[in-house]
């Protein structure tokens, strides 16, 4: 059988090694700015692992944190394309230097019988806080890096997890470096 | 405006503010089409005569005409359409301008603010649907923001890497009133494109150019857009290097000059593509190494060469090809700086190496890759373009549609000056030609404007013949009628086993009668001997639009051709088939 003819339209994809990056963006706090960033990622086929955004102490600016994976070439394009967006004021790839990353998770777990005590113990080990208690459930707040939150989920019995909600990572540089206008 | 006048300045409507803003921007023509959401604006247009409105027959035509007006003149093109279908019809034209970085401001009507989101009559999320194909867009929700937004729109459209900007204006905003003051300047903390190139990088580039043994200069639309043709020509002459232009860059360097190797890329000349592949130092100016230009980047990268890349857009640099000396900045300013550094330095060039390189290039050139059968009894499309070039003295503005005819026009019409070649390179939009010719004619009322088209492309915007009649535009339409979607047929011949699936144009209109029915002159030309006389006669008619329907060879193909995914030196040449 003949091998399928490669489409004359396709270009061979470059071989690249994908890495995780955390990109922090200061952008004008304007309607539509978020959809422009999200649209850029989908239109150009970049990957978004998580995206968080909220206004800063200066209400005219928002701070966005995007966790993405890509090779160095792709990351270079992502930062250049983001910088091209009219509303983007500044951005930095936090993963290029020491930085702090935190994510918040709220998790509702079944807490009955002998599991109730075990749940409490697990929350303590991971420095979680129990925010809400019913006769059969705990709602726990946990903050940390993504992998710490993953580890917590791993440590629990799957059947005990009723619901989880995670914010996605926020990040800030270590030391005196700041991202500011 | 001083304080006192400001205080007494009367409140005027958003619609009037809009027109006053356009006036302040020096806008001469607005290409548009009315509808419910823009009626206040049309009413204001009616009341004044500074900003002239050109009524097209389809909003796609309005966008293309505004776009080409800009391409031909370097001003910002302006287009005005109504909400809903007005916007969606204009979308193709907006995307066309975006892909070729054309400065354009598109004002779109919108349903009243209170109706937004209600699925109101003729509501479409204009900001949403245009977002991926504009440089930026705005929704104006308060009449007090209107003037500043228009100011920003023009500023963004024309600065940095230019592009279209959409301003969506709800109907109630055009009816609301406030005092008008047009800002003199606009400051945006988030938008400050780099203009000046880095001096250290420019120095490195100059050094590299002087060391070159097999240099090549490759330039694109950026040279045209930044009006840098004079600087480029001076630089290339000073260095004695070979130069090639992309499809978008034609006219950036005089095509009749011996140092010009013709266009490069998928349908570029043998000598341009070979020199591009085998050079040791490449100066890329206002070009972006796109897939139709360098083919397979891996193949291109397989030969070591050092690359200097000058571009206004940082994201164009090292996107498809790694470069050694990136220079972000306005092409004209960077070339000016380079010229300063290289002035009087030509003595340092390795003349012996350059001579050997030129010998090699001339050998490539001697292949005469654009050769075609001049003795043919059927009209060859290339022949028509050659004659068009002769008859117009190489001095016409040529607007083109998309297909084989576009490539032949690019190959055979030698553009010596910028802004004479108007075509949709990035998006490749069929239907662009005729409205583009209109826009160019409005920009240059006295100029000779030709529209090179194919029967399939022409039928995508032929309603604009009516606009041409209304405004007496004496455009000469050169229809290379091969009864095929020729470019599609060519690909099907090469890559799909001669299966001409849906590429034959059956049931074509009688173009002569069609032109006549719109009040124009139509001529059919069937024999090679009649080509030149017909062109002479047509271009002699200074007042009339003449539609020349040339019945051309159905089986002619565009050569050379680099198949998609191949390297640029892997060309199919005419004699190989
Ligand atoms: C709007 C649009 N639809 C489809 C295409 C795909 N396409 C590219 S060239 C071409 C054929 C053009 O035929 P014609 O205008 O007759 O020109 P020719 O190639 O025969 O010179 C087509 C269909 C396109 N470029 N634009």
Describe this structure in words.
The complex is a heterodimer of chains A (181) and B (577). Chain A has 181 residues and is of the alpha+beta class. Chain A contains four helices and nine strands. In chain A, strands 5, 6, 7, 8 and 9 form a five-stranded antiparallel sheet that branches. In chain A, strands 2-3-1-4 form a four-stranded antiparallel sheet, covered by helices on one side. Chain A starts with 18 loop residues before the first strand and ends in an 8-residue tail after the last strand. Chain B has three domains: 10-179, Thiamin diphosphate (ThDP)-binding fold, Pyr/PP domains (Rossmann fold); 199-365, Rossmann fold (3-Layer(aba) Sandwich); 381-558, 3-Layer(aba) Sandwich (Rossmann fold), CATH 3.40.50. The longest helix of chain B has 15 residues, at 59-73. In chain B, β19 (521-525), α24 (528-540) and β20 (546-551) form a beta-alpha-beta unit. By secondary structure, chain B is α/β, with parallel strands linked by helices. In chain B, α4 runs parallel beside α5 (85-99) and α4 packs across α19. The site of thiamine diphosphate has 20 residues of chain B, from α18, α20 and α22.
Which shape of chain B, going by the Cα principal axes?
globular
Helix content of chain B: 25-40%
**Greatest contact between two chains:** A-B, 29 and 28 residues
Q: Give the proportion of residues in helices of chain A.
A: 25-40%
How large, in whole angstroms, is the Cα Rg of chain A?
21 Å
Strand content of chain B: 15-25%
Oligomer: heterodimer
Sequence of strands across the biggest β-sheet of chain B? 3-2-4-5-7-6
Largest sheet of chain B: 6 strands, parallel
- Based on DSSP secondary structure assignment, what is the total number of beta strands of chain A? 9
Number of H- or I-type helical stretches of chain A? 4
Tally of distinct domains of chain B: 3
What is the CATH homologous superfamily assignment of the largest domain in chain B? Thiamin diphosphate (ThDP)-binding fold, Pyr/PP domains
User: How many angstroms separate the termini of chain B?
Assistant: 71 Å
Mean pLDDT across the residues of chain A is 91
Q: Biggest β-sheet of chain A, characterized? A: 5 strands, antiparallel
| Residue share in β-strands of chain A | 35-45%
CATH topology of the largest domain in chain B: the name is Rossmann fold
Number of strands of chain B: 20
